[in-house]
Design a protein that fits this description.
The chain is built from eight helices and twelve strands. The chain is an alpha/beta fold. It folds into two domains: 121 residues, Rossmann fold; 98 residues, Winged helix-like DNA-binding domain superfamily/Winged helix DNA-binding domain (Arc Repressor Mutant, subunit A), CATH 1.10.10. The strands form three sheets. The protein has a five-stranded parallel beta sheet, sandwiched between helices. Strands 6-7-8-9 form a four-stranded antiparallel beta sheet, covered by helices on one side. The radius of gyration is 19 Å and the shape is elongated.
């Protein structure tokens, strides 16, 4: 396994307990007690997954999550957010900012381990296992550049297909406009944020009934979400 996990929490006792538990499960664990420490650690080496507390002194977990999602190096790193409050607003905001999962304290450490393993398996599975995607009426074969809606083929331009592939490879995760621009167009001359919006509009139109799976996250970017 040997995945690198970064644990960020101002509760040192909790960090010590989780570091011991995850270490026994075969993970390499780094810890930070605040947001600034977390960012410093991430700059040195990007982890495979981050467990991030919402309520910390200084930069909050929400601030850190938002920062990570707007940085190309960390835009796709899985994040599990923790909070001491059973607050629906916190949960919704955490997911809106790009967290992959959310747990409320106190929690069962075994459940956290299982969630970590599940996310890592989904995100880092070998590419050959991720060539085919099926969501509702939409099916996509990345190797063959084939897209079907209700078993009918949909013709997409190469750029439209690349855009769909980037969105569908991380369902539920927000893809910031800047990240999409660099991944697909590599910031070519004359490429602006409105280029993304135009292509998304055309892509939705071509996908018809499946076009609604592509959600706009106002002021941030887009995400693929099966309804």
């Amino acid at each position: 396994m040997n995945n690198n996990i970064l644990m960020v929490d101002d509760d040192k006792d909790l960090l010590a307990a989780l570091e011991l538990k995850l270490g026994k499960e075969g993970f390499k664990v780094q810890t930070a007690i605040d947001g600034e420490g977390a960012l410093k650690t991430i700059r040195m080496k990007v982890p495979d997954l981050i467990v991030l507390d919402v309520n910390m002194p200084g930069k909050s977990g929400m601030d850190i999550c938002k920062t990570l999602r707007t940085d190309e190096r960390t835009a796709d790193v899985p994040i599990i957010m923790l909070t001491g409050r059973d607050d629906e607003i916190d949960r919704v905001l955490g997911l809106e900012f790009g967290a992959d999962d959310y747990m409320t304290k106190p929690f069962n450490t075994r459940e956290l381990v299982l969630r970590i393993k599940g996310i890592l398996k989904r995100v880092y599975m070998p590419p050959e296992q991720k060539e085919n995607f099926k969501y509702g009426c939409l099916s996509v074969n990345l190797a063959n550049h084939a897209v079907k809606v209700k078993n009918k083929e949909v013709e997409l331009t190469l750029t439209e297909f690349k855009l769909l592939a980037r969105l569908i490879e991380s369902p539920g995760k927000i893809k910031p406009r800047d990240v999409l621009l660099e991944q697909i167009w590599e910031y070519g001359d004359g490429v602006f944020s409105r280029t993304i919006d135009t292509h998304i509009q055309r892509l939705r139109s071509k996908l018809k009934d499946a076009g609604g799976y592509i959600e706009t996250v106002r002021g941030v970017g887009y995400r693929f979400q099966e309804r």
